[in-house]
Automatic annotation (TrEMBL), chain A:
Residues 455-466 have a biased composition (Basic and acidic residues). The chain crosses the membrane at residues 6-25, 32-52, 72-97, 117-134, 140-158, 170-191, 217-240, 252-274, 280-302, 309-330, 336-358, 378-400, 412-433, 507-525. It comes from Nocardioides oceani. This is NADH-quinone oxidoreductase subunit M. Its main location: membrane. Residues 449-499, 546-565 are annotated as: Disordered. The lineage of its organism: Bacteria, Bacillati, Actinomycetota, Actinomycetes, Propionibacteriales. It is a multi-pass membrane protein. It is found in: Endomembrane system; Membrane.
UniProtKB/TrEMBL annotation, chain B:
It comes from the Bacteria. GO terms for molecular function: NADH dehydrogenase (quinone) (non-electrogenic) activity. It comes from Nocardioides oceani. It is an enzyme of class 7 (translocase). PANTHER family: NADH DEHYDROGENASE SUBUNIT 4L-RELATED, NADH-UBIQUINONE OXIDOREDUCTASE SUBUNIT ND4L. InterPro entries: NADH_UbQ_OxRdtase_chain4L/K, NUOK/Mnh_C1-like. This is NADH-quinone oxidoreductase subunit K. Belongs to the complex I subunit 4L family. It is found in: Cell membrane; Membrane. Keywords: Cell membrane, Membrane, NAD, Oxidoreductase, Quinone, Translocase, Transmembrane, Transmembrane helix, Transport.
TrEMBL record, chain C:
It comes from Nocardioides oceani. Residues 90-140 form the NADH-Ubiquinone oxidoreductase (complex I) chain 5 N-terminal domain. Its main location: membrane. The keyword Transmembrane applies. This is NADH-quinone oxidoreductase subunit L. Pfam families: Proton_antipo_M, Proton_antipo_N. It is a multi-pass membrane protein. The gene is nuoL. The chain crosses the membrane at residues 25-43, 50-71, 107-127, 139-156, 202-223, 269-287, 299-316, 336-358, 393-412, 432-454, 475-499, 519-541, 623-643.
Automatic annotation (TrEMBL), chain D:
Its main location: membrane. It is an enzyme of class 7 (translocase). It comes from Nocardioides oceani. The chain crosses the membrane at residues 6-21, 28-45, 51-73, 93-118, 138-160. Residues 259-271 have a biased composition (Polar residues). NDH-1 shuttles electrons from NADH, via FMN and iron-sulfur (Fe-S) centers, to quinones in the respiratory chain. Couples the redox reaction to proton translocation (for every two electrons transferred, four hydrogen ions are translocated across the cytoplasmic membrane), and thus conserves the redox energy in a proton gradient. It is a multi-pass membrane protein. It catalyses: a quinone + NADH + 5 H(+)(in) = a quinol + NAD(+) + 4 H(+)(out). This is NADH-quinone oxidoreductase subunit J. It is found in: Cell membrane. Residues 245-290 are annotated as: Disordered. Keywords: Cell membrane, Membrane, NAD, Oxidoreductase, Quinone, Transmembrane, Transmembrane helix. Coiled coil: none annotated. Its EC number is 7.1.1.-.
């Protein structure tokens, strides 16, 4: 164990940064400091990763007594699962902050200022990291609830009209889940105290010998809280409202980082602390996950608000993650862990590009968009990459995880796999239909540009049947003038030549996400190296083994006369 | 020595009467008087118990109650005056804005 | 109905050796076009000027490597003609270990040549065809991406790797169909193609899952070794799932609806993707999975049924289309039906399926590019009713197109004659119903292709005077000439049953099987049926005046054919409309019912609060009364506790 | 115990009286009765110091304060008999009775044992004993009460203080204000006419008469007007006509109401019109000098 308490440093840097940023006098300075702090946190996160030994269980642990009477500790530690979540968090936050450099002021009300957005984002990062690192259940509970504070202010302070109500709804759901969780946390104390010295340390609790009913009741509390957080089918309605009203940056922090706490908790607490009860609850959870996959995808297809749509795709994805966790096979669980990382990258890219699109069009209503591709090809390309990641195209990282989950689900029961796999068709529909309506078509200014601008003089419009081409100039200008007032409401971003494409620095912000998606799509071994040892430990702790294949390799077959004849 | 029970009973009765007064009277000043009545009833019990136990602490407590009552009356009456100035009324029912 | 050959035959085991020497260049085949695509996509406008050259160069380079590899492979012993190259570990969890592995064997070797060869020609052609498009660089990037993905598909050593290529070509197809995104129809067609392909992917994903649970691996070589030990039901299920995937990619009924719409893409795309290569991936999949299908006769039966239906379905559509590209697309669908039929016939048909696939790649690419050349000269008009007598205006196009035409109808001596004949022959040998239907299909092919030929190049001039048909530049005609030559000469592959023997290590060798009729009779019969079709077209189309607008008072069959045999209508009624209704219902239900759980709860709390807040009446004396009540309760409780 | 049995009924009755009397002053007096009785009981209970303090502080200071405030608020202020909050009174009585019953019952239940008595504690004198306690064990509490008292005093001052919101008006500003009021609302500009100026009587309850013979109501104190102790104008008008008739000099119609003091003979002929005020100041209702 090294002398430097790396994990405490990892949590403390953004936390201190948040306070400093909140106290700074000028918004510009605050932005810069916040970005630097988040990059510093990234550095610390990388340092932690470098010291991590693959397959070494819980590492870099720090344990100090906090409330001795209840056996509560300030205990941090990192294992394979935590490490991936931590890295995801520290990577996403600088990207969100850099993205928000120019977007934080969007639609903010009296309750928010640019500076406070950055401060709250850093606070959220610190608390999320603490959640992923806590190895004491009580400490976990405390920071789990504490994440709601910055999240509430981020949702309520920044975004569209109606964000206040969305923030309250978010808070109600989360507090409701947290309340149930509190019940189980207290219950854990009771059983722990009955067994001897009370201790909230995760390692001690995992050793507890619980009665069947106690284990099931305790599991129920944890599971409900995490199902609200993740979210799964009946408890998902906060997600859509929140993502619709909040800024894309907030949504990234919320969906890609914060919601991971739900699935993280399922692995860390439900499975590790209550293995038998978890297996008992499997049919219910698997059913909910399947419903979420299909239901979320169908809902996403029916949405008109771009951000709401993106938010609801996550419902489907969280269904996949939960499914992978609860089918109890190494493919499923490694797949779920990878899915958490990949979903973080892919959905972040989708949210941020959608944010760019909305900024350029001044509306988030899909039915009022169209034709962006011609004017903003780079943005369209990134948007498409994000969409393809969402639909798990092979070659992008989500494919690997989704395939693993589908295989594991199929292994669990063939019809589970069959239901889950419909998600890939529905995903194609919502992603491509969204892309079609947002990006393709003649668009608001395309006709005018084709008639006038030199760049488009040789437009392929000429390849259209002749009847279209002849009246294009006159009809085109009329369309252009008619639609300009609506796009003009984009508050300066829309000039006379229409929405501008992404500028280099905006591309640079998104580039790491794209690079990550492609690299991990073709070479996900780094993730497997970290996740697999954890999954092996978990599987042996839970006491399950992978099903052996019906026909193992090396079976000798006589190659004559097989078949029905 | 004589029994102090009657004193305590008297104290209880006075206290109850004070309570009812607070609940039924609407003139703020009279309500205040009823509060004073309750305080005095308590004092009587304290003094009686001091005698019962042969211990002066009860008297000291009664003394402090008086001091605090004096302070309370000063502030309370000032508040009543201020309210009366602005609302032209000393009825506690008129100050009922803090409601649903 | 259909029965597998009684004779015992052997499912060949894929037993590759590690790549060395020239074969270590295998990755380069995929790498070159991939690098080309990456450079062109990331390079932005800086690469606009020379992008198309880079793209073409990458494809040609890939072709050169393919040829080198092919020569090397031919030099080897028959048993050693299977090489694998492990690039890196891709997925490794528990028992599931998937490497990014490449498998180079006689089957992939042929595909490599076809893809890179035809692909390179189409690249060259596109330089001319897309010359005036401001986004030509992107077009070439997408083409390169497609070539790389298609090569990945045919080189993959396991089903997951194949899936990677499978989806990669789907993506490239999506991008290229929707290349002119400003047209709503193009964007919609692209989406439709991708979504229908995704339906097929359900089969692929589930097949991979089932293969893994059954065999614990997804590698071709490992599965082929032990496939005989699996239960037949399992293998049938795998076969059907793979067939579903193949139906999506190869536009087989019932997932055929996207192919006609896909003609929205630029014509070289139609030639490369929707005629020569990608759409035949389904055939490749079935042939590659021969170790499954051979042991799952029921699955094979379904393949044959699907193939037969499709070959007629596509042929019927091809008869009624006035859009030259759509007529060709219908023909493609039909021809892939032939290939599928061949693949479904088992060991006897695999080699011929691949043979027809290759010759079809030549002549159909040739004809699509010819159609593109025609459109190029006709101001992008695609309506054949406004063509006519173009043989004078564009002689090279006409001649090359004619070669393709003769090849597809199976004119004796041309490549299509050899390949299609063999499939019909085998079909007749295996099951006479299927054989007769395939024969009928050949006749219809003769009809619709003759009709197309007549409408376009022969008959009388019907184009307006402001259209000036002209021959295309050399950069476009040279590929046409090369492909025409290949269309004519493709039959040489069958010389001495070369292709059958070449593929034998992969697909096995069929025992000699006597057809019900002498081969020469079958051949003559086929030629006769085709001749009837050609003659019918001559009498119905060639000898009459062609109206500029299609006549409306036509038979039900024609109307059905014009409506793609109601493929879209069926999808609409069965899937789209119920789906849309479901989505609407769920969207509304989510807002009301599911969210109602929350909003209902909160309004319940609010209602209770509304009642309870009445207690806060503002009267201090009321509050004091409550306090007194509370005091009484507390005192009583204390007394009760103390007295109890 | 004699004192107790005499005083206890008195105290209870007086306390009950507080509940029912309508006037606050009566309630205060009844409270005084209770408090003085309490003081006596303190004395009986061996608490001579508290006896003194009770009388000095409670009855002397606190009750006086009550009365003082009552004078400010209005000595007449009395409650209406009608209870406005539904159910308040019966519930209050019920609960109060309940409390009394419970308390009395529970006190009655307990046997307190023998009374120790304060003889030992008061040996060196009650006041000295209290002082010993107060300045040793309770010294901190004692000091705290001093802080409390000071705070209360300051608090009362702050609460009762009326803040001046504008600058103190000067004579000039008042004069300017009067002219402004006259200009805007036509308020009377000059001093009010003295009563009885043009009347035969110059008593305070007799309004002055204007030159046209109408009475000037504003010349009489409002208090007198409110009490109805004012002599009616027609009476006075009759008087004037009598006088005129007695003098017999003037024809009835010449003194038209519109005719203002313009140098006609009225002023000079009336010996009692010594003061020239009304003439110079102008009649009420005349045009303002603009």
């Amino acid at each position: 164990m090294s002398d430097v308490p790396w994990l405490t440093v990892l949590v403390a840097v953004p936390l201190v940064g948040a306070v400093v940023v909140a106290a700074l006098p000028r918004a510009e300075l605050a932005k810069l400091v916040a970005l630097l702090v988040s990059v510093l946190t990234l550095g610390v996160g990388v340092a932690v990763a470098l010291q991590y030994e693959l397959g070494g269980g819980m590492q870099l642990t720090e344990t100090h007594d906090w409330i001795a009477a209840f056996g509560v500790h300030y205990a941090l530690g990192v294992d394979g699962l935590s490490l991936l979540m931590v890295l995801l968090t520290v990577v996403l936050v600088p990207i969100v902050l850099a993205y928000s450099w120019t977007h934080a002021d969007e639609g903010r009300g009296a309750s928010g200022s640019t500076r406070s957005f950055f401060a709250w984002a850093l606070a959220l990062e610190a608390l999320s990291l603490a959640v992923f690192l806590a190895t004491d259940v009580f400490l976990f509970y405390v920071v789990f609830e504490a994440t709601l504070i910055p999240a509430y202010f981020l949702i309520g302070g920044f975004g569209k009209a109606g964000r206040g109500a969305a923030a309250v709804k978010f808070l109600m759901f989360q507090l409701g889940g947290g309340l149930v969780l509190l019940g189980s946390v207290i219950g854990l104390y009771v059983v722990s105290a009955q067994a001897g010295e009370p201790s909230y340390l995760h390692a001690d609790l995992a050793e507890l010998d619980l009665s069947t009913s106690a284990e099931r009741w305790l599991l129920a509390g944890f599971l409900i809280a995490f199902i609200v957080k993740a979210p799964l089918f009946p408890l998902h309605t906060w997600l859509a409202d929140t993502t619709e009203k909040a800024t894309p940056g907030t949504s990234v922090l919320l969906v890609c980082v914060l919601d991971k706490i739900g699935t993280y908790g399922m692995l860390r607490f439900c499975l590790e602390l209550f293995p038998e009860a978890s297996r008992w609850a499997t049919p219910l959870v698997v059913t909910l996950a399947l419903i979420s996959i299909v239901y979320g995808a169908l809902l996403a297809i029916g949405q008109d608000d771009l951000l709401r749509l993106v938010g609801l795709t996550s419902l489907s994805h969280f269904g996949f993650i939960t499914l992978g966790i609860f089918v109890f096979s190494s493919q499923g669980q490694s797949g779920a862990i990878l899915y958490m990382v990949n979903h973080g990258l892919g959905t972040a890219l989708l949210f941020l590009t959608a944010g760019h699109v909305i900024e350029r069009r001044g509306t988030s209503s899909i039915s009022r968009m169209g034709g962006m591709e011609k004017l903003t090809p780079v943005l369209a390309g990134l948007f498409l990459v994000a969409g393809l990641a969402t639909l798990s195209l092979p070659g992008l990282s989500p494919f690997v995880s989704e395939l693993l989950v589908i295989i594991a689900a199929f292994d669990y029961h063939w019809w589970v796999g069959a239901v889950a796999v419909t998600g890939i068709v529905l995903a194609a529909i919502y992603v491509l239909w969204m892309y079609q309506r947002v990006m393709t078509g003649p668009g608001p200014l395309a006709a005018g540009a084709a008639g006038g601008a030199g760049e488009h003089a040789d437009d392929p419009a000429r390849r259209e049947p002749a009847g279209h081409g002849t009246d294009a100039p006159t009809g085109g200008t009329a369309t252009a003038t008619a639609t300009r007032p609506t796009t003009g409401t984009t508050a300066g971003s829309s000039t006379a030549v229409g929405p501008r494409d992404l500028r280099p620095h905006e591309v640079a912000v998104l580039a790491p996400l794209v690079a990550g998606l492609v690299f991990l799509g073709f070479y996900p071994m780094p993730l497997f190296d970290v996740a697999n040892p954890y999954v092996e430990d978990l599987m042996s702790h839970v006491g399950v083994e992978d099903d052996a294949p019906a026909v193992p390799e090396g079976t000798t077959v006589e190659h004559a006369g097989e078949g029905a004849h | 020595m004589t029994d102090v029970t009657p004193y305590v009973v008297l104290s209880a009765i006075l206290f109850s009467i004070g309570c009812v007064g607070v609940l039924t009277r609407r003139n703020a000043i009279v309500v205040f008087m009823c509060v004073e009545l309750m305080l005095n009833a308590c004092n009587l019990a304290l003094v009686a118990f001091a005698k019962q136990h042969g211990n002066l602490d009860g008297q000291i407590a009664a003394f402090f109650v008086m001091v605090v009552a004096a302070a309370e009356v000063v502030v309370g009456l000032a508040i009543i005056m201020t309210i009366f100035r602005t609302r032209r009324s000393a009825s506690v029912d008129d100050a009922s804005l803090l409601k649903y | 109905m259909y029965s597998l050959s009684e004779a015992a035959h052997q499912v060949p085991v894929i037993d590759p050796s590690a790549a060395d020497g020239t074969f270590s260049l295998l990755w380069l085949v995929i790498g070159l076009p991939l690098i080309g695509a990456a450079v062109l996509l990331l390079g932005g406008r800086a690469t606009d000027r020379w992008g198309h050259w880079l793209g073409t160069l990458a494809s040609v380079g890939s072709f050169v490597v393919s040829v080198l590899l092919f020569v090397e492979l031919r030099g080897r012993e028959e048993a050693e003609r299977s090489v694998t190259q492990h690039l890196w570990d891709w997925i490794a969890v528990g028992d599931l270990e998937v490497g990014l592995d490449l498998l180079y064997d006689p089957l992939s070797a042929l595909f490599l040549l076809l893809i890179t060869g035809v692909g390179s020609l189409i690249h060259v052609y596109s330089i001319g065809y897309m010359e005036h498009d401001p986004r030509r660089r992107r077009f070439f990037a997408y083409l390169n991406l497609f070539v790389a993905a298609m090569l990945m598909l045919v080189l993959a050593e396991n089903y997951v790797g194949l899936f990677l290529g499978w989806e990669g070509v789907g993506l490239a197809s999506y991008l290229l169909i929707g290349f002119w995104q400003h047209k709503h129809s193009a964007a919609a067609a692209a989406k439709k193609a991708f979504v229908i392909n995704r339906v097929g992917d359900i089969g692929m994903a589930l097949a991979i899952a089932l293969l893994f649970t059954t065999f614990g691996t997804t590698s071709f070589s490992a599965i082929s070794e032990v496939s005989g030990a699996a239960e037949e039901d399992t293998l049938t299920a795998v076969g059907l799932l793979l067939l579903l995937a193949a139906c999506g990619k190869s536009a087989q009924v019932p997932l055929q609806a996207w192919l006609l719409d896909a003609m929205e893409g630029p014509t070289p795309v139609s030639a490369l993707i929707h005629a020569a290569t990608m759409v035949t991936a389904g055939v490749y999949l079935v042939v590659r999975s021969n170790f499954i299908f051979e042991l799952a006769p029921h699955a094979q039966t379904v393949v044959v049924v699907v193939a037969t239906v499709t070959l007629l379905w596509g042929a019927v559509i091809g008869c009624a289309k006035d859009d030259i590209k759509k007529a060709l697309a219908g023909s493609t669908m039909s021809q892939i039906g032939y290939m599928m039929l061949g693949a479904g016939l088992g060991v006897a048909g695999y080699a011929f399926a691949i043979f027809h696939l290759i010759t079809h790649g030549f002549f159909k690419a040739n004809m699509f590019l010819g159609a593109g050349s025609v459109m190029h000269g006709m101001n992008d008009d695609v309506d054949m009713r406004r063509y006519g007598a173009l043989r004078h205006a564009m002689p090279v196009t006409f001649l090359t197109f004619a070669m393709g035409y003769l090849a597809i109808i199976g004119f004796p001596g041309f490549s299509g004659f050899w390949s299609k004949d063999k499939i019909i022959e085998t079909a007749l040998a295996e099951n006479w119903v299927v054989g007769v239907l395939a024969l009928l299909g050949a006749g219809i092919t003769g009809f619709y292709m003759t009709r197309l030929m007549l409408l376009t190049f022969l008959t009388s001039k019907r184009w307006k005077d402001d259209v000036h048909p002209h021959e295309s530049p050399a950069v476009m005609t040279v590929p046409l000439i090369v492909l025409a030559a290949l269309s004519v000469l493709g039959g040489v592959l069958l010389l001495g049953d070369w292709i059958v023997e070449w593929l034998a290590p992969v697909v096995g060798e069929a025992p000699h099987h006597e057809p019900p009729l002498p081969i020469i009779v079958i051949t003559l019969l086929t030629v006769a049926v085709v001749a009837v079709g050609v003659a019918a077209a001559w009498f119905l189309v060639g000898r009459r005046e062609v109206p500029l607008t299609p006549p409306q008072d036509v038979s039900f069959a024609t109307r059905a054919a014009r409506a793609d045999v109601y493929g879209d209508a069926i999808n609409d009624v069965l899937v789209v409309r119920p789906g849309a209704a479901t989505v609407r219902g769920i969207t509304a239900g989510d807002r009301t019912l599911v969210d109602g759980l929350f909003t209902g709860g909160s309004s319940g709390v609010k209602a209770v609060g509304n009642v309870l807040r009445r207690l806060q009446n503002g009267f201090v004396r009321s509050y004091a009364l409550s306090v007194l009540g509370g005091v009484l309760l507390v005192v009583l409780a204390l007394l009760a506790v103390n007295l109890a | 115990m004699t004192a107790f049995w005499i005083l206890a009924p008195v105290m209870v009755l007086a306390a009950l009286g507080i509940l029912v009397v309508r006037k606050a002053v009566h309630a205060a007096l009844l409270l005084a009765v209770v408090m003085i009785s309490l003081a006596v009981l303190y004395a009986v209970l061996d608490a001579p110091f508290l006896f003194a303090v009770q009388i000095i502080v409670y009855t002397g200071a606190i009750l006086m304060l009550f009365l003082f405030v009552m004078m400010i608020v209005g000595v007449d202020a009395s409650d209406s008999v009608v209870e406005t909050i539904r159910g308040q009174r019966p519930l209050a009585v019920l609960l109060g009775l309940g409390l009394a019953v419970i308390l009395v019952a529970s006190v009655g239940q307990i046997t307190l044992g023998t009374v120790v008595g304060l003889d030992a504690a008061n040996e060196g004198g009650n006041i000295e004993a209290l002082a010993n306690l107060l300045f040793s064990r309770y010294v901190f509490v004692f000091e705290t009460t001093s802080a409390l008292l000071i705070t209360a005093a300051v608090g009362a001052m702050v609460l009762a203080h009326r803040e001046r919101t504008g600058p103190r008006p000067t004579q000039a500003s008042r004069a300017a204000q009067r002219v402004r009021d006259f200009a805007e609302r036509g308020e009377h500009l000059g001093p009010l006419p003295a009563p009885g100026v043009y009347a035969r009587h110059n008593a305070v309850d007799t309004p002055a008469l204007l030159p046209d013979g109408t009475p000037a109501e504003s010349s009489v104190s409002r208090t007198l007007a409110a009490r109805g102790r004012i002599r009616s104008a027609p009476d006075l008008a009759d008087d004037i006509e009598d006088v005129q008739r007695a003098l017999g000099g003037l024809p009835g119609g010449s003194g038209s109401p519109g005719d203002t003091a313009s140098g006609s003979g009225h002023n000079t002929e009336n010996p009692s019109a010594a003061a020239g005020g009304p003439a110079t100041d102008g009649d009420p209702g005349s045009e303002a000098p603009r």
